[in-house]
């Protein structure tokens, strides 16, 4: 059983689903985003598809994968990347971690185009939320009580920041979905897909 059907991607801003090779030529409207057209790096088509799958407000991935990392992984798979392939591993990791400046510009331009400042804020806050969460889950190692206390205080501040980010996300989602609280609750609290289901994504 597949998680997605072609119809799930019918509302994407750019119809990139199931389009192979020469993406810009086959979907000419992509040229409306200059950085898409001008990008000179490797795997251009896959990266453009990755951005569309991951960041489009109408992408089903945000509903099925509340966790940003899992969402990025599935966007990469749908785009044609093999996460276990050493030949492309460094490239996709650079894209997913936002370390590729060229791709970062593409994402920024894309979000400005498809959106809505509200969606851009949701994406930015979710990125920050999971980055903070990652730091919070790291074990504390300190040889002196003073260092331990300082580390715990930093964790306490991170927890406060996470609460604030979460409150902002709730506000932005409510605005994005036209004040429909039930819709917001359904989308933002849906359980993350289990590992057993991952093979059915594509």
Provide a compact summary of the structure.
With 202 residues, the protein is mostly helical. It has ten helices and no strands. The chain has helices spanning 23-26, 34-38, 44-55, 61-64, 68-78, 86-96, 101-114, 117-136, 145-176, 181-189.
Number of DSSP helices? Answer: 10
| Number of DSSP E strands | 0
In whole angstroms, how far apart are the ends? 10 Å
Radius of gyration: 19 Å
Helix and strand pattern: HHHHHHHHHH
Kindly give the count of domains.
Answer: 1
Helix % is 55-70%
For the largest beta-sheet, the strand count, sense and barrel status come to: none
Binned strand content: under 5%
Task: Average the pLDDT over all residues and give the rounded result.
Answer: 80
* Overall morphology: globular
- Supply the helix-strand structural class: mainly alpha
Uncertain spans: 190-202
Structure explained in plain terms:
The structure is a single chain. The chain has about 200 residues and is mostly helical. The chain has one domain (about 5-200). Helices cover about 60% and strands about 0% of the residues. It has helices at about 25, 35-40, 45-55, 60-65, 70-80, 85-95, 100-115, 115-135, 145-175, 180-190. Helix 8 (about 115-135) packs antiparallel against helix 9 (about 145-175). The longest helix is centred in the last third of the chain and has 32 residues, at about 145-175. The protein is globular. It starts with about 20 loop residues before the first helix and ends in a 13-residue tail after the last helix.
């Amino acid at each position: 059983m597949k998680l997605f059907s072609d119809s799930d991607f019918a509302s994407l801003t750019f119809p990139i689903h199931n389009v192979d090779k020469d993406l810009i030529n086959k979907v000419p409207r992509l040229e409306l985003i200059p950085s898409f057209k001008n990008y000179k790096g490797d795997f251009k088509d896959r990266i453009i598809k990755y951005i569309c799958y991951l960041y489009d407000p109408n992408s089903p991935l945000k509903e099925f994968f509340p966790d940003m990392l899992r969402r990025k992984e599935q966007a990469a798979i749908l785009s044609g990347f093999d996460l276990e392939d050493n030949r492309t591993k460094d490239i996709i990791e650079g894209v997913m971690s936002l370390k590729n400046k060229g791709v970062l510009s593409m994402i920024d331009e894309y979000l400005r185009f498809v959106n809505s400042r509200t969606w851009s804020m949701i994406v930015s806050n979710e990125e920050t939320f999971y980055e903070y969460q990652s730091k919070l889950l790291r074990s504390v190692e300190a040889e002196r009580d003073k260092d331990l206390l300082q580390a715990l205080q930093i964790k306490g501040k991170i927890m406060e920041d996470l609460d604030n980010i979460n409150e902002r996300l709730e506000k932005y989602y409510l605005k994005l979905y036209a004040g429909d609280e039930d819709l917001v609750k359904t989308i933002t609290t849906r359980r993350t897909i289990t590992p057993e289901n991952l093979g059915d994504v594509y």
